[in-house]
Amino acid sequence: MKQDKQRTLDRLSRLEGQVRGVARMVEEDRYCVDILAQTAAVRSALKAVERLVLENHARHCVEEAIAEGPDAQRKKFNELIALLQKAQG
């Protein structure tokens, strides 16, 4: 679990650097297409972070709910559905 946390933090640090880089590109009046290419890379990196957090959630939180029984399972299932709906919107 500690390793998952560190991997997530490492990716977020890289993502932070990418966002700063995009801001610098805008400040320098760089070519719009180049900026858009970088924003696409930022979106992709953010999705990778989301996947890591979701995998961690499934591995730990959902696994615990499975062991706890039907009420906890239903609650985690509803959380996942709500999360997926937000991701689609």
From TrEMBL:
Q: Which UniProt keywords apply?
A: DNA-binding
Q: Which CDD domains match?
A: CsoR-like_DUF156
MF GO annotations:
DNA binding; metal ion binding
Query: Is this entry keyworded DNA-binding?
Result: yes
Annotated GO biological processes are:
negative regulation of DNA-templated transcription
Q: Which family does it belong to?
A: Belongs to the FrmR/RcnR family.
| The protein, known as | DNA-binding transcriptional regulator, FrmR family
Q: Lineage from the top down?
A: Bacteria, Pseudomonadati, Pseudomonadota, Alphaproteobacteria, Rhodobacterales
